[in-house]
Design goal:
By secondary structure, this protein is α/β, with parallel strands linked by helices. The protein has nine helices and eight strands. Strand 4 and strand 5 form a beta hairpin. The N and C termini lie far apart (49 Å).
Length: 227
């Protein structure tokens, strides 16, 4: 009879990304950077995209569909071009990372075995950068690829927000035979309540500053986009 492999017990620390580690909305900033680099293409795309924003606000399409449409502009580029644009973006926008997060990450490494980032931001936009600065595992919203590896503006699975972050963490833990304990969780938003609820220590990032505890109310972004 095959003996079952015993799960490894690991203490982990988890972060949100936008307005938690990064002082802004990285997806919006990425498009701003793209706009400066490809002004004509970006202008034409944005005029078309405004239609989908309107459809979202009147509840004809959902957030997942809106997000997919936001990244359609990348379909005109090869995989290599997209990665170069992303690398160039982070060369400019890495300055938006909150200064305190560097020393906090060093401390985290002594407090837990893994430091994880889980964000609604597309994984392709943040993964390489965050691994390069020392985070151990990165979760984001996954996008599909075509038969030849080309970018497709279609979310693979679900938008990585709310309870989906817990589901994705659980799936990863199961695949890696891990029983995890969240020692600390950092976020700017009550959209992350499912992760706040299972973390031992909770840190609310308010205007770039770390405050112990959970947010006391939903932000405008929560109300408009996370519900």
């Amino acid at each position: 009879m095959k003996q079952e492999r015993e799960n490894m017990k690991k203490d982990i620390i988890v972060y949100d990304f936008d307005k938690t580690i990064y002082g802004g909305e990285s997806g919006t900033n990425f498009f701003t950077y793209y706009f400066k680099k490809y002004h004509v293409k970006a202008s034409l795309f944005f005029l078309l995209y405004l239609r989908y924003v309107f459809l979202y606000l009147i509840k004809i399409i959902d957030l997942k569909r809106l997000k997919e449409k936001f990244y359609v502009f990348l379909e005109k580029h090869s995989e290599k071009e997209i990665q170069q644009i992303i690398d160039d973006f982070w060369t400019v926008y890495s300055k938006e990372i909150y200064e305190w997060t560097g020393s906090e990450l060093e401390k985290n490494k002594k407090e837990a075995e893994l430091v994880i980032v889980s964000s609604a931001t597309p994984l392709f936009l943040i993964e390489k950068f965050l691994l390069s600065v020392g985070y151990d595992v990165v979760f984001g919203t996954d996008f599909k690829k075509g038969k030849k590896g080309e970018f497709v503006a279609e979310i693979d699975g679900e938008n990585n927000k709310g309870i989906e972050k817990v589901k994705k963490l659980n799936k990863w833990a199961k695949e890696n035979n891990i029983d995890y304990n969240i020692v600390k969780f950092y976020s700017d938003s009550l959209a992350d309540k499912p992760l706040f609820d299972i973390a031992e220590k909770k840190y609310w990032i308010k205007k770039g500053e770390k405050v112990e505890g959970m947010p006391d109310r939903k932000t405008i972004i929560d109300i408009l986009f996370w519900k």
